[in-house]
Amino acid sequence: MSAPLIISARRVHTLDADAPPASFVAIDGDHIVGVGGPEERAAFEGPETRIADFGDATVVPGLNDSHLHPVWGLELARGMDLTDAGPLEAVRRRVAEEARRGAPWILGWGLDPNVFGPEGPSGRVFDDAAGGRPLFLRLRDAHSAVAGTAALEAAGVTGAEEFADGSEVAPGADGRPTGYLKELSAMDLVARHIPAEPVQERAGRLVELLTAMARTGLVSAHVMDFAEGTREVVELVESRGDLPIRLRFSPMVPPGASLEELREAAALQRRGGRRWHVEGVKFMIDGTVDNGTAWLERPDALGESRAPLWRDPEAFREALRFFIDRGVPTATHAIGDRAVRCVLEAIASAPPKVRARAPHRVEHVETVPDDTVAAFAELGVVAGMQPVHATRQTCADGSDNWSRRLGPERAARGWRCRDLREAGVAVALGSDWPVTPFDARAVIADTVLRRPVERPDLAPVQPDQALDMRMALEGYTTHAALAAGHERVAGRIRPGYRADLTVLGADPLACTPEELAAAPVLATVLDGRIQRHL
């Protein structure tokens, strides 16, 4: 063994139930070789030992966001950040200001659909403010957008377009398109006409983004796509240096994918670079509640959310089984109760020994009945959840679009993190950036509080589904590792595991959620290398 690096702090939370209290981690190269207290530490100290003493700090396993889109998100998050914009007149003013700057296209992202009121989203309402310039604003769920009349004309969108999946160009009362574009295929009609960002600029933005993520304590992430151009961008970054966090990409399998497309996704497996690799695939069986494109057992209050994006559920089952049978991990976006049930039934169709070859996940799980919770536990399926969607996008009084569409009964089943955990289900947590902010500390705090951590004035959303601090921390560590099938190499602080750590200025197992959200991240350790973020 070469001279090790010792990370020292008052507390080291190994998240290993059998381990005694610890105050140091010894690292050799990119792996942990020792962990324990003062008596064990002496065996790793020598004249050439490097020591990083963080004093009254807490070391935890490296935090992992289990669902985000950092590279594709560069495209999704172009233009104005409209995350907290509103009311509608305020958004119109921002559009007008952007138009005066003279950009060829007016772009924005993160817009709350609730700002449009009962009439629903429309791009026409921005035509005057845009001053004749093409406008394209993505809504906060990243599954929809509004395009102005000039943008629709530039893209040749007439409203007569038909799609193989559940996408839609929404018509107005006059039969003409309103500019409300539901789901990816419809959005792409306009998005592909927006001038592309040069790869050099995208690479620079990616480094800035991942560095900002590392500053919140993230060490790694599960990326739920491998969008076009991703490989070019990450390889350019790695030709200049290292990625600030480790990225695990799962290519998206489009609804109605052909056998050739399935084979192409399978062929990408295990490709990668120093700090990125392709592992697993991502499906989308439905859309979102806000758009009326989720797949529910019963239609929503507007008579929508009746069908899956995969128009033929049997074709979806066969496509999912294609990867299950080959031992490839799967993750499936499923928001509505019928969508979640369909995914679980497809996984259950594989023999237990076959599906045990790799982890399988259902992402989002926004509303499910009791028997579905039990099915997760019976099948050993991971729930990939973002309770921050509940805290940032719904209201305890049910006045938001999501709650009104579902009605009280189904809204009360929202984001059942606690029920799933108590049933023995692994619950991996994430932000779904750019849908919601990526700060891991805030996501953990929101998961415990069931409200935005910075808004004590707001009532919690389904507070009975709150996780405690340890459970929420496990959602970013041990359960994140389980979700990727990495539980033997990551998610805990244990000899032989990756030397991926997060050093916090507060103890997440002893402080309040508010204190954690404000706690400094003193450093992250990735591949045994210290990255300080003061």
From TrEMBL:
CDD domains: YtcJ_like (cd01300). Gene3D superfamilies: 3.10.310.70, Metal-dependent hydrolases (3.20.20.140), Urease, subunit C, domain 1 (2.30.40.10). It comes from the Bacteria. InterPro entries: Amidohydro_3, Metal-dep_hydrolase_composite, Metal_Hydrolase, YtcJ-like. Residues 53-530 form the Amidohydrolase domain. It holds the Pfam family Amidohydro_3. One of its GO terms (molecular function) is hydrolase activity, acting on carbon-nitrogen (but not peptide) bonds. This is Amidohydrolase 3 domain-containing protein. The lineage of its organism: Bacteria, Bacillati, Actinomycetota, Actinomycetes, Streptosporangiales.
